[in-house]
Design goal:
CATH topology of the largest domain: MetI-like fold
Number of strands: 0
Order of helices and strands: HHHHHHHHHHHHHHHH
CATH class of the largest domain: Mainly Alpha
CATH architecture of the largest domain: Orthogonal Bundle
Distance between the termini: 38 Å
Strand content: under 5%
Mean pLDDT: 79
Largest sheet: none
Helix content: over 70%
Structural class: mainly alpha
Number of domains: 2
Low-confidence stretches: 254-258, 300-304
Radius of gyration: 25 Å
CATH superfamily of the largest domain: MetI-like
Amino acid sequence: MTVADNKKQHNKIGITTSEKVFYTLVDILLGTFFLLVLLPLINIVASSFSTADAVGKGKVLLWPVQPTFEGYKAVFTYKGIWRAYANTIFYTVVGTAMDMAMTLMAAYPLARRNLPFKKPVIMLFMFTMLFSGGMIPSYILMKNLGLLNTVWALLLPGLISVYNLIVCRTFMQNIPVDIEEAAKIDGCSDIRYFFTMILPLSTTVMAVLSLYYAVGHWNEYFNPWLYLTNTKLYPLQIILRSILIQNSFDPESITSEDDILGNKALQDLLKYSLIIVSSAPILIAYPWVKRFFMKGVMLGAVKG
């Protein structure tokens, strides 16, 4: 059926005046929200490509003023950026891999129908979604385990997200039992069935959950701020926080008197450029998993 045929059929059915008004109001409301989100982003991008003087005087709105790469040059000559960037990539890649491994290994047995004490185990997992020890007990625990000022302080505490675990478990429950029965008839063990059948069939939900975990690790700043005092282990978000909130600037990155005079203006420009630089990897990665996104979430949330 062509688009013209669909339009003719739609016109035959028709919509009431109240529905037209409703759809119009919804379009206006969604368009307004879209602009409220889009315009600040455009302003950030435009500011990042403008001169420090234009940014400092508030001349930039939706288009760069005196376009330049001065802000990005300042970002990549700032000594702490490269190290923080490398740390964040490490935390994101290694942390996401560890999170996915633990989530899949926990979700698979919980998806099995013959698992003993299945409901109590699930309730214990869900209990942690509602109650936790709190910040101070968590800090004391990390200190007693000797994890302060180590990379493990950022990788181990959030090793499993219970929400992601439930989504993954529900997805695996929807895989037909006939596949497992056929595999067992062929002499397939549970471990082999998990690696050769379950994982290939779960690529959709794995892509979605990997994005969730990766975004969480990339944007994490509270745990590093709480558990790390060694600046060599700082992720990118801590550097971004210090520039955005504290307006701090590394004196070692200033190499001339002109840099000292323009320090305040450069700080303002550096904020916008650093926001773009820190957000770019996630924005680039999202289109690769977008086609899995809705499908994975919906398939993993059909049943409880």
